[in-house]
């Protein structure tokens, strides 16, 4: 896909992370509500590592999600090769303050279109856990089908929960 990929929708921009984004990324990655179904909130050092390791490579795994109106980093989109060059994984994390605006759906839809029309992908996959009903709803609305369930695969908030695989 290339680290130079930039994608825009009516309200959002997707771009490569910059080292100067660390503080803004910390703003949402340290938020307990935002990270509820993902993992424990990040401290500042973990956020720096995340941005350096996953986001600023020539071929990043994760892209910065910018709200055009405010020009703020409000989250990120995961979009990268998954096992084969023709299969990509998609995911999203958006600061809880911005939930309910349709941002995940809007940018995921644009990424899916880009993946199939520009990258000629065979398939796009996504994973989430049982309690994350909002993400499951978004994935189904995007046309994803549940393809499998890994029983008690993830430890979330003190209990083992199922992981759902979508394609």
Q: How is the secondary structure organized here?
A:
Elements: E1 7-8, E2 12-15, H1 22-29, H2 44-55, E3 62-67, E4 72-82, E5 84-94, H3 103-117, E6 123-129, H4 133-141, E7 146-156, E8 159-166
Q: Can I get a quick summary?
A:
This protein is of the alpha+beta class and 167 residues long.
Task: Provide structural commentary.
This protein is of the alpha+beta class. It has 4 helices and 8 strands. Strand 3 and strand 4 form a beta hairpin. Helix 1 (22-29) packs across helix 2. The longest helix has 15 residues, at 103-117. The radius of gyration is 15 Å and the shape is globular. The two termini are 20 Å apart.
Give the CA-based shape.
globular
List the total number of helices.
4
Sequence stretches where pLDDT stays below 50 over 5 or more residues: none
**Helicity level:** 25-40%
Which strand order spans the largest sheet, edge to edge or round the barrel? Answer: 1-2-3-4-5-6-8-7
Major sheet characteristics: 8 strands, mixed
- Residue share in β-strands: 35-45%
If you average the pLDDT, what whole number results?
Answer: 92
Tell me the structural class.
alpha+beta
Task: Fill in the keyword field for this structure.
alpha+beta; 167 residues; eight-stranded mixed β-sheet
């Amino acid at each position: 896909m290339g680290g130079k990929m930039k994608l825009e929708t009516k309200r959002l921009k997707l771009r490569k992370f910059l080292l100067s984004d660390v503080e803004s990324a910390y703003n949402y990655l340290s938020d307990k509500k935002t990270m509820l179904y993902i993992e424990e909130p990040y401290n500042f050092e973990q956020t720096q590592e995340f941005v350096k390791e996953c986001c600023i490579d020539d071929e990043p795994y994760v892209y910065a999600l910018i709200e055009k109106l405010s020009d703020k980093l409000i989250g990120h989109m995961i979009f990268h090769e998954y096992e084969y060059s023709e299969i990509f994984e998609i995911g999203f994390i958006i600061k809880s303050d911005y939930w309910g605006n349709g941002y995940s759906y809007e940018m995921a839809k644009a990424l899916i279109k880009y993946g199939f029309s520009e990258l000629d992908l065979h398939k796009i996959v996504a994973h989430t856990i049982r309690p994350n009903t909002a993400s499951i709803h978004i994935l189904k609305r995007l046309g994803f089908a549940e393809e499998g369930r890994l029983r008690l695969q993830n430890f979330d908030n003190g209990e083992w929960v199922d992981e759902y695989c979508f394609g």
